[in-house]
């Protein structure tokens, strides 16, 4: 069943990884990374409020609810683990950055397509139309990836989507706030920015590279949802490197 959160708390585990998807996204976005996590590490792949349901449900949620939900998840993991790693995609990276500045147990961030600056390209609008009208063809890798990453159940009444406007206004406000707290980051951060991203402006990289703890990797052939095979393998290998740096329980 799609759009289900995964929560695997390992008894005695000292490390937990929290995965946070983006706006109108789904925990399924991390399906390529979850299997790479060792069995001695706890996993919490969260489903944000209003996602995995209908258009109206998304309209009735809010940024405040998402912030509170993420904060609760971090607090819960901090009670029984010595360290927390946060993996985020798009909007999820904003929550990750915020929590890294607030919770001392957050030791590392793995960030995918950080939206510090937004520029919506025509291709994104075209992809949205294809997904909305169910016109995605198997050979259209970009639209197929977007469709798989879409965490809202279909509703064809276009007027219901007007309720989404406040959510995106809240997102833009969150982006502005994140720019201000970026200098407070003091944990290791690995960011992956897609050169062909349909929504995140390339200027986001300029904000990120200013900070000494931030390593920025450019994915030359990928978009916001679509990761070309070589780029995806690069991300997966970097994720494995991160996992291998985590001491196993018998090494403490």
Please describe what this structure looks like.
- The chain has 252 residues and is of the alpha/beta class.
- It has a single domain, classed as Rossmann fold (3-Layer(aba) Sandwich).
- Helices cover 37% and strands 16% of the residues.
- It has a seven-stranded mixed sheet with strand order 1-3-2-4-5-6-7, with helices on both faces.
- Helix 3 links the parallel strand 4 and strand 5.
- It is globular and about 50 Å long.
- It starts with 5 loop residues before the first strand and ends in a 7-residue tail after the last helix.
- The relative contact order is 0.17.
- The model has no long low-confidence stretch (mean pLDDT 93).
List the helices and strands and how they pair.
Elements lengths: L5 E3 L6 E6 L21 E5 L8 H5 L3 H18 L2 E7 L1 H12 L3 E7 L9 H11 L8 H8 L16 H17 L6 E7 L9 H5 L5 E6 L9 H17 L7
Parallel strand pairs: 2-3, 2-4, 4-5, 5-6, 6-7
Antiparallel strand pairs: 1-3
Helix pairs in contact: 3-6, 4-5
């Amino acid at each position: 069943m799609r759009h289900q959160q995964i929560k695997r708390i390992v008894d005695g585990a000292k490390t937990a990884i929290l995965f946070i998807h983006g706006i109108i996204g789904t925990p399924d976005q991390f399906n390529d990374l979850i299997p790479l996590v060792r069995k001695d590490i706890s996993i919490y792949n969260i489903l944000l409020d209003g996602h995995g349901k209908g258009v109206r449900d998304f309209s009735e949620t809010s940024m405040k609810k998402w912030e509170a939900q993420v904060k609760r998840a971090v607090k819960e993991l901090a009670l029984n683990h010595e360290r927390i790693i946060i993996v985020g995609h798009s909007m999820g990276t904003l929550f990750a950055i915020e929590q890294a500045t607030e919770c001392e147990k957050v030791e590392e961030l793995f960030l995918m397509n950080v939206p510090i600056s937004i520029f919506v390209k025509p291709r994104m609008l075209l992809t949205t139309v294809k997904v909305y009208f169910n016109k995605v063809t198997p050979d259209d890798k970009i639209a197929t990836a977007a469709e798989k990453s879409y965490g809202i159940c279909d509703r064809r009444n276009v007027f219901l989507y007007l309720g989404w406007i406040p959510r995106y206004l809240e997102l833009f406000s969150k982006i502005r706030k994140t720019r201000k707290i970026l200098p407070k980051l003091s944990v290791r951060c690995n960011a992956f920015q897609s050169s062909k991203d349909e929504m995140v402006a390339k200027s986001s990289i300029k904000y990120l590279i200013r900070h000494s703890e931030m390593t920025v990797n450019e994915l030359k052939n990928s978009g916001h949802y679509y990761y070309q095979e070589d780029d995806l393998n690069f991300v997966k290998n970097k994720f494995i490197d991160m996992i291998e740096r985590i001491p196993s329980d018998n090494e403490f």
